[in-house]
């Protein structure tokens, strides 16, 4: 009696621990679904900018409430685009090119989110399979194999323990999926994927408003320091200051972020020395950077299914074999008796 109570108590503790392990699992699944919602928000924002642009092309000035809709865009685009448009209107500069450029940027961001969601679906399926295979297999053996009923709650406890052990495969797989979605960037640097295009768009709007490029760099750097201090520290505030090295080797996303900062600075330096405009060159650098980052992320996402196999072999197959061996042992004992 005491032994059964101890086993049930241990089983309840194992179940409680498994529920704790499921919390980050469900959060990551929810984040995967959120990618689609975020993409829809970005597309809706791009649609608002397109409407504003078409209104301006028709020779009509949008109403103030139509301009105010920009502030409700997803962060950091709401404050960024709103301040950029305000500066352009105050200086009397053309707003339409900036609207079209930012519309393209938002659509590119949305497309990247949807592509990541589609390519990580298999990883989510593998994670769910790893979570459900052990309890499903265990309860199937419990109902079909003879002699298991004689073990009392011991086999059920074994199923619970194996399920907890298999849950680590799901956590590992979802970590791999998140890492692939952000191109291998660590958690502290993942905001860079939004901060880099936002900073470059802000600087382009400042230059289009008539601000010298070196002053535009400094102003956007000040604003960047509030949104993403790590990226601001990486790039540096002065145009003539070298960007700080990330310490990463190879062509990683971190290298691309560091490289785009250096390239923009060099472009501004040459423009100041030669007395020419650098707007088109910086715009080209921004587009090229977004394209390169998407290629890096796509490479990670393409190899994601094969990278999810080791967690399944390490955390799912062992409890399955253990359950099968214990079930066969009980069946043989039942047949011998």
Number of helices: 14
Structural class: mainly alpha
Q: What does the overall shape look like?
A: elongated
H-E order = HHHHHHHHHHHHHH
End-to-end Cα distance = 25 Å
**Major sheet characteristics:** none
Round the mean pLDDT to the nearest integer and report it: 82
User: What is the tally of beta strands?
Assistant: 0
The low-confidence runs, each spanning 5 or more residues with pLDDT under 50, are: none
Strand content: under 5%
User: Helix proportion of residues, in percent?
Assistant: over 70%
Rg from alpha-carbon coordinates: 28 Å
Features:
mainly alpha, 337 residues
Task: Break the fold down into its secondary structure elements and pairings.
Layout: H1 2-57, H2 64-68, H3 77-91, H4 96-119, H5 121-144, H6 154-181, H7 192-208, H8 213-227, H9 229-235, H10 253-274, H11 279-302, H12 304-307, H13 309-315, H14 317-336
Helix pairs in contact: 1-4, 1-6, 3-7, 4-7, 4-11, 5-6, 5-14, 6-11, 6-13, 6-14, 7-8, 7-11, 8-9, 10-11
How would you explain this protein's 3D organization?
By secondary structure, this protein is mainly α. Helix content is 80%, strand content 0%. The protein is elongated and about 95 Å long. The relative contact order is 0.12.
